[in-house]
User: Fold these one by one.
Assistant:
Number 1:
Amino acid sequence: MDERNNKKSNKKILIVSAVLLLLVGAAVYLLFFAPSGGLQDAVKKVVGDVLDFAIRDQGPTGEVATTTRPKPGPPLPPAGIQRLIQLTDFPVLGPAFNRDQLRIRYYKKDGGDLYESDFIGTIQEKISNITIVGLAEVIPHRDTERAALLYLDKDTLKGFLHSATSAIEALPDNIRSFSWSPDGGRFVRVMRGPNGADVVIANGDGSNAQKIYSSPIPDITAEWIASDTLSLATPPSLFAQGFLFTLTRSTGALKRIMGPEFGLMHIWRNDGARLITTNTPSNKNPRPVLTLRGADGALLKTLPITTLPSKCAWSKTNTYLFCAVPRRPLTGFWPDNYLRGEINTEDNLLAYNLETDRYIIMLSDHAFDMTDLVVTDDDRFLFFIDRRDGTLWSFRIRE
């Protein structure tokens, strides 16, 4: 009898073990190999909560984002609050906030009229009637309600400075790049010179223009990143190695920060003390590598997400990096194909905590190709342009 009971007990153990193995196998498949979705997320939650596993949370491009359970990101708004709102049904350029950051301003691409909306789409007002045919680019200053507008007149790129309701000053023709100083009181522009390019600074109304540097590189661009520091960069390409420099305005000292690198792109932090960069290992491996670097170009960390710096925005506190990350692996010649407008992406929107190296995906169920991201100082709202149709959208990050 004992022998028979032992056989039955052993049989039950074998059956239970087999069932457990099947369940574990199914869980492993759903966790790591099945397409991402509600079932996979549910299994992750159950397995993680019950067994307290260290979940390897997959990122938007299928990469491992963290080896431990992600720490909380920005506090989410209560359930029932609409987080995503379309602000325009027409293409826009140059989104930026008004002075008190209660509304967002933008220029209508067709015609150039200046509009202002609240953050939730209940108010939209036209605050300036200007007629611009061929509006190509708007470079707003974040805090002063001023902008530089560039437009095509046949084959000539023309421009002027605009302040809310009136033009301030015409700009010289064929500006190569334009950037406001951090306080908005001055700006830097790059012009084609006799031996390359001239870097010129001027007062905010265009007066007192002074050439401070001449570069042998004709297509160099300039950014004003700190009170006494400019950034100079060559155009990014997978087929030509690029460089990034800083130029000290008071002394004229030029320092190489990065390069030569294929596909070199960057976005500076608000205070110019850090920057996010991408480069590609070679033109045979066109997958951009996203990194955090110091102002001297020193590598601080490699970030486990694949996107371009132009799809990111720093938080005012510099704690978070908000990025639009393509869901599918990048194909083709990056960044060239994308910058020329030959391909579009479908992006997830995420908040990456640079202190904890954890991120949360905030938006993943739309086919946006996000660009021109801007974030309020309190990290409550984020705005972006959908590059597919040029429309402006608002996203509530937290309550």
Note: The chain is about 10% helix and 45% strand.
Number 2:
Amino acid sequence: MSQGGTSYSYNGDGVLVAQTQGSTTTRSTQDLVAPLSQILQLTQGTQRTDYVYGHERLMALEGTAQTWYGSDALGSVRQTLSSSGAALSKLHYDPWGTPQGGATPPTFGFTGELQDGASGLEPIRITQRRERRPRHRQSAGRQDSAGPFSPSAPTSGESG
């Protein structure tokens, strides 16, 4: 898939595996066993960043440099910290996930999702939905099964 000068490559499950902008390709290694795939590593040329997880994403490790993530209840990155505890960045979002005050999210931003630096957009996880059998048969004009409301007899005070 391509947008502007950036092309995106996905695996058979629809998980992003590479992004190429100009001559620079960023490859991702993801944990596909997690309920929602999580990026374990991003590689751009010889530069490699590993991500460490606990219950959520905790830290980015690039060489010996550690960047710790401070997240809110949604998983949105609100601040990043150095290994010494010094604040590297603080982020605020509006209710729709737009960074406020000119701040640029790190690799991960609103709800902890990967940020696309090329487009400024957040790629959304696409899930496949199974088609459900309709509850009404169009040809017969009646229900296949009982719906949430199925009166069998008039209640008191009603005439039948």
Note: The longest strand covers residues 24-31.
Number 3:
Amino acid sequence: MENPKITWLASFPRSGNTWLRFLLCHILTGKAEPSSHVEQAIPDIHLVRDVALSKSRPNLVKSHFRLSASMPLLGCTERAVVLVRHPLDVVMSTARLFCRRSGGELSHYETKFLRSFVESGTPYSGPEWQGFGSWAEHPTTWLDQSQFPTRVIRYEDLRNDTAKVVESVCQFMRVAVSPDRIDHAIVDCSAEKMSKIEDRETELGARGIFTRGRAEDTQLKFVGGGADWRDHVTDEQRATIRDKYGAQMARFGYEV
């Protein structure tokens, strides 16, 4: 029998990977709670390098790494789903995350991370994000190669027509799934339900995606809606973003 292979769920940070993991975990296993179950079913390569691969079901693994020869488990790759999101929504989402973690005024983080993105192509360049590349570079490394097939999906499309996008991902993975099963997963993985899971696990200090075993160590306050960046970007910043990243944004149907 052929050795088991990996389907990567690849994305730049703050692009909706967690939500996609919950949806696909529910479809593959029939549930997406507790979050530790999702973490076991679809592991995070940044936390678990020795991934146990199954021969009886698809092996999905999350990654924020840019694709490179040094990426862990690259030789086990079968295909990759590449999730993208409007870069300025990524910036605003990053600002909210750091504000929740560190406190202070949200506007401070919005200004800081927007300036960083305009200058370097990434809202944050700390050690936790090493190896991810810039927003523009990340999807290019995955999509502009011929080693294995890829399917790109936009976070915005996942929000606006979740059933259609999930169905297309399942078809790409060669997973047969009924419309009822997809609908059930969407209901159980709604923003409201995921927020309740996070609140409950954070309060209990339960180890999982939302915490690392400490009640004060919140990893993600799930927010299903998009961020409104339009009131934060100056005309000068818009012009710089168009000059630097306009071609890549247009590739995915984004404007600024």
Note: The chain is about 45% helix and 10% strand.
